[in-house]
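Re-run with default settings, no changes from the original entry. Doing this only to confirm the output is reproducible before filing.
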Amino acid sequence: MDRRDFLKAFAVAGAAATVQQVGAMDLMSQTMSNASGEKVDLVAVMGGEPEEMFRRGIAEMGGMKNFVKPGMKVAVKPNIGWDKAPELAGNTNPKLVAEIIKQCFDAGASEVTVFDHTCDDWIKCYKNSGIEDAAKAAGAKVMPAHQESYYREIQLPRGKKMKSAKVHEAILDSDVWINVPVLKNHGGANLTISMKNLMGIVWDRGFFHQNDLQQCIADICSMDKMAVLNVVDAYRIVKTNGPRGRSASDVVLTKGLFVSQDIVAVDTAAAKFFNQVRSMPLESVSHLANGQALGIGTMDLDKLNIKRIKI
């Protein structure tokens, strides 16, 4: 497939008037040219429903059994930060969360726990996001995160600004965990994706904002127990007025999904995708480069084996 056809295949659905071609910012001009070997580093899926896209994406990564073994306790960390309905894209799509949970159990997980340290009232966020009902219907345990007693301190020896943090016990007590952010605009960090989603596993979010937000986001991602998978929900994205969004006019139906174990790479790919809707220079999302500098992952997508799927 040549570049023109590839770009056409990944045109943003339902947003023809909004989509911009942005040269080097275009994800599709930056990847796949020198992919080699059998191992897939990153999967980009376009055009389906959330659960269908994840099924296709995880299959390309070798299936959930590559990451979740029989008897494992799994934590799934979506973005549930806002008291918003799924259509407003302030939170991770509940259909995607449910599919991930189901696949964890199919792989043999003994327990799956879902949580987030929310910004709005946690009970309303869990309920109105649709995630609580979807997670419970899929068999998961939904755990609160609104009290400090749920968190235990860990050290971050590679951190530049943040040297320690209190992390939710669902992460610390799991065998593996899966990071499931939604891609959207953010007033402080410019974009919130996988790396920033880790703010929802930490008790003191205020520290981030008071001590160089972009560096602290990278610092928490230097923790020893990183997600075994990062699954970026780009089915709908908040293009403006994020992270909460004000109305449906802030939301674009993009029908995308990105999956990788490399948290910097998957966020770089998702950020390039966002640039097809609204210009957002990668240098303005500086926690990506900060993460790369800490050795957490790579922004150099040309060195990765990336699988593209159009449904």
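The chain has a mean pLDDT of 90. DSSP finds eleven helices and twelve strands in the chain.
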